[in-house]
Specification:
The complex is a heterodimer of chains A (about 60) and B (about 450).
Chain A: H1 14-17, H2 23-29, H3 36-60
Chain B: H1 7-16, H2 21-39, E1 42-45, H3 47-62, E2 74-78, H4 106-113, E3 117-122, E4 134-135, E5 139-140, E6 142-143, E7 146-150, H5 156-163, E8 169-174, H6 180-186, E9 189-192, E10 212-217, H7 220-231, E11 245-248, H8 258-270, E12 275-277, H9 282-300, H10 302-307, H11 314-324, H12 328-351, E13 354-358, E14 371-374, E15 377-380, H13 381-384, H14 390-393, E16 399-403, E17 413-417, H15 423-435, H16 445-448
Parallel strand pairs in B: 2-3, 2-8, 11-12, 11-13
Antiparallel strand pairs in B: 1-3, 4-5, 6-7, 8-10, 9-10, 9-16, 13-17, 14-15, 16-17
Helix pairs in contact in B: 2-3, 4-7, 7-15, 9-11, 9-12
The chains are: A mainly alpha (about 60), B alpha+beta (about 450).
């Protein structure tokens, strides 16, 4: 495989994904109150979405 | 009649008077009652209404009238299609007390007007968000080829019902692969039509830019007939003798099992394909579709997430909440990526008549584990079975999943992808593959014996 000419994408974090807020703050702003059980499930899904976002950023920041 | 008779055979027998529609529907209802406890594919059965409709078909025939090309053909609908008089639940407890639909979804109405008879609603992942048909409220649909395995989703009830010979045709919806994935795992044909060709009015929406509805069947001819009836379009447009077929490489030859890649290559070889072609943006396109789906799905259900949080299936709820939290910047980036990915695929379809890729990365996973192995790593089947369908959904092109013949082995499907509006080409190519014995929807052993 030919190495792609990329710049390292800025590493997004979960906060980046949520526009700078925490999951609890973002959920609260939408009127959703997370329980402990939900927080774990939501967090797991945010990890998955973050992986997807990294994949997108990697291509969009390619020179 | 043989429970694995095609829609065409049933209609022909009913119209000729060899069998009555009432006899067909009675036998169908009996078979559903007997086998559904094992499969968990039907969520509601329309005994009385179906028998009434059959009586009406028989009356028309007795009067010398033509009830239509699907006379007396039983069909099922994923429980997100409106059926007049029934509540559309979309697989959710939240909607179970909603008012009943006042009319049929357009495609259900068109099938009914062609003489087909709805016999029930079919199981699905809650709000169509998943590739497993594991539903906290309505149960898990079992794969007719191995009851310990998943049927795939989100239209798993539809696929299992057709594969097990309960109905010859069923309707599903495909946003990111929800027709193609269960078609692959259950060993039948499943069509995702060109986006917008079959009307979605009267169905419960998920992601507007991606939502399509399409048929499952055990033969190409039945898929073609159902599509023609629902679209009002003829597919009598023969494909060229020499098909320009390309095998998708790169993303579509990574992570999955050998069975998936072997199946795609067999189809490619049969079509005398000569070129393997990469879609370099496939992985990022899939990620973009994943993000856009999460966000739109989350926002669609925001009101219920605020008011009825605990009534959701927990797995769906947490996915929807996470999606609703995504920032505008993330969505804007995903949109940009989606556009680039669409252009790449559309461009490739200028050069090729048909592109070929596996429908799923593996055969049906075990229900107990709920996991698939990708590149040595075990990941959620519910989220990842659409690995190869999701990148192709954004472009709105028609895709037919065909079951590759694998005697004695679990089924797996292959996607045939064409340019927008070229369903006729897909049906022709699938017929060639059927005639050559490369694809076939063989009855599952334990259900073939139950006549």
């Amino acid at each position: 495989m030919t190495p792609s000419k990329t710049s390292e994408p800025s590493i997004a974090t979960k906060e980046t994904l949520l526009g700078g807020s925490s999951a609890d703050e973002s959920a609260e702003s939408l009127g959703i109150e997370l329980t402990d059980e939900m927080r774990a499930g939501v967090d797991q899904n945010l990890e998955l979405l973050l992986t997807q976002y990294h994949t997108v950023l990697k291509v969009l920041t390619r020179r | 009649m043989n429970p694995f008779a095609s829609a065409q055979e049933i209609s022909s027998a009913v119209r000729s008077g060899a069998v009555t529609a009432s006899e067909i529907i009675k036998a169908t209802l009996d078979r559903i009652e007997s086998l559904n406890p094992k499969l968990v594919c039907f969520t509601r059965v329309l005994d009385e209404a179906a028998m009434q409709a059959a009586t009406e078909i028989d009356r028309l025939i007795a009067e010398g009238k033509n009830p239509g090309p699907l006379a007396g053909v039983p069909f099922g609908v994923k429980d997100l299609f409106d059926v007049e008089g029934l509540t559309t639940t979309a697989g959710s407890a939240i909607l179970q007390d909603a008012p009943p639909a006042t009319s049929d979804a357009i495609v259900v109405d068109r099938l009914r007007k062609a003489g087909a008879i709805p016999v029930g609603t079919l199981n699905m992942d809650e709000f169509a968000y998943g590739f497993a048909t594991v539903n906290q409220h309505t149960g898990t649909t079992h794969n007719p080829h191995d009851l310990a395995r998943l049927a795939g989703g989100s239209s798993g009830g539809s696929a299992a019902a057709v594969a097990a010979g309960l109905v010859p045709v069923a309707l599903g919806s495909d946003t990111n692969g929800s027709v193609r994935v269960p078609a692959s795992l259950c060993g039948i044909f499943g069509l995702r039509p060109t986006h917008g060709v079959l009307p979605v009015e009267g169905t419960f929406a998920f992601v507007d830019r991606l939502d399509t509805v399409g048929p499952f069947s055990r033969s190409v001819a039945d898929a073609r007939l159902a599509f023609e009836v629902m679209s009002g379009a003829s597919t009598d447009d023969p494909a060229p003798a020499q098909i320009r077929a390309g095998l998708l490489s790169g993303w579509f030859q990574k992570k999955g099992q050998a069975a998936a890649f072997d199946a795609a290559r067999r189809v490619f070889d049969m079509l005398d394909g000569t070129e393997e072609v990469d879609l370099p943006l496939a992985e990022a396109g899939r990620s973009a579709a994943f993000l856009l789906t999460a966000s739109e799905g989350g926002h669609r259900h925001l009101e219920n997430l605020k008011k009825r949080l605990m009534d959701f299936d927990a797995a769906t709820r947490d996915r929807l909440i996470a999606g609703a939290l995504l920032s505008e910047k993330v969505i804007a980036d995903a949109e940009t990526m989606a556009d680039r990915s669409i252009n790449e695929l559309i461009g490739l379809l200028d050069t090729f008549d048909v592109l070929i890729a596996p429908s799923t990365p593996s055969v049906a996973p075990e229900i107990a584990a709920g996991l698939i192995e990708l590149d040595g790593e075990f990941v959620s089947a519910r989220a990842n079975l659409g690995l190869y369908t999701q990148p192709l959904s954004l472009a709105g092109v028609p895709i037919l999943s065909v079951p590759v013949k694998r005697p004695g082995q679990l089924p797996i499907g292959v996607q045939l992808v064409a340019a927008r509006g070229r369903e006729a080409l897909l049906f022709d190519v699938a017929e060639r593959l059927s005639e050559a014995g490369v694809v076939s929807a063989d009855p599952p052993a334990q259900f073939a014996e139950v006549a």
